[in-house]
TrEMBL record:
It comes from the Bacteria. Residues 496-510 have a biased composition (Low complexity). Residues 481-495 have a biased composition (Gly residues). This is MFS transporter. It is found in: Cell membrane.
Amino acid sequence: MTSQNPTPSPAGAAPAADRRRWIALAVVMTAAFMDLVDVTIVHIALPSIQRDLGADFGAVQWITAGYALAFAAGLITGGRLGDIHGRRRLFLVGVAGFTLASALCGFATGPEMLVASRILQGGTAALMVPQVLSIVHATFPAHERGKVFGLFGAIVGLGSVSGPLLGALLTQGDLFGLGWRPIFLINLPVGIAALLLGRAFIAESKAPKALRLDLPGVVVAIAAMLLLMYPLTRGAELDWPVWCFAMMAGSVPVAVAFVAYERRRGRRDGSPLVELSLFRVKSFAAGVAVQLAFGIGLGVFFLTWTLYMQVGLGWGALRAGLTGVPFSVAVSVAAGVSVQKLVPRFGRKVLQVGALTMIAGVGLYRWEADRYGMGIEPWQMAVPLVVLGVGMGLVVAPLTDAVLSDVPREHAGSASGIVNSVMQLGNALGLGLVSVVFVPGGPGPAVAGAFTGALGWVAAVLGVVFLVMFALPARPRQHLEGGGDGAAPDGGGPAGAARGAEPVPVAAGR
């Protein structure tokens, strides 16, 4: 952006430029915070939404899974669109779309409208979020980015802790008689302010050698995801008709067709949606498998946990939200210690200890839920939640760098986009699988029993995560910046860690 004064004095130009940079940073950080809080807010309000709209269990799954699926499908594309058409432009388009979708969610008249609006939210978030790190990269000189990334980490932690409490307060407070709707409507003033300030203070930037958009690849990838996801969320409710199995089977040849198309496109013009050569790197392929399995486990846990507390135990939203505070705090603290102190010294072992600690936390939670039954109190959940949170913090923060450690630098942006898309896809699959592993026969004790059964599945998935981690590098190198075009990765570094940690929130996830 050019100055309004055509001949500014050297003494005044530098402070003015600094002010513009920091205002631009505040805008993109606010948008990232809005996205993080929106993710953390939703789950705590799901029982209220279900009662108010008369939504069935499949719709409840899609309110969360639809967002995650749309975000996963659009994440790589969103970063590339910013490189091609301008990061400021795509950021503002994403903010505008996210704000509009939030309004549609808040004024939804039925479950179908809410699900569609949540899918729109996820898609527009996929335009908005990948630009954050790229705008920071283009706006700040290299010697200032460490301080900026530290601030971003603090914003992530604040969003993880404050979102569930804010959601609980807004839902239980029933502002203006609107019930759960303010959890979405609160985004409107924030989004409008971000649009106005972003338009005024964010400078435009593009990648000097941006790749072309692989639109057919996007369409085929989304088709494969939907063929698998839709029957997973609807099958149990409909008693698994034949068409559910047919659709899931059909996702396999579509996925194979996607791989064949991407390989051909890579040979033809070098601009595939997914750089398949990356999967020849053993640590990257294993890391993608870890991200997928980890996302599945988190998706199952967070949705069933919310339903356990509010539908099974009959707790209100505020009590459920406060119960999870020790978990969120434990994640934030352990994540900071993991990255700064433990991983540089012990490498991959920290992630594996984190996975085993999560398994211990799940096992302890299951034991306490069985022992205390319907009379369990929030303070009795605190110890297993802290153990679970510490384990998760040891994993989520350093995982992206571990996966990218052996990736060639010129492919760092593409690789980080794949990693974070796979994490969100895993979360969506986990939410879809809830109807398979969590089948209560009624309210109350039946829900509590189904929750302890689901915890067994979560522990099994975490066991797979632990084993696959042996293929990660023993001493991961950190990828702090993007590849050869100078652009920041689509989702790596601090931004990627943030997206990977989004299921952190209390009674949240996707």
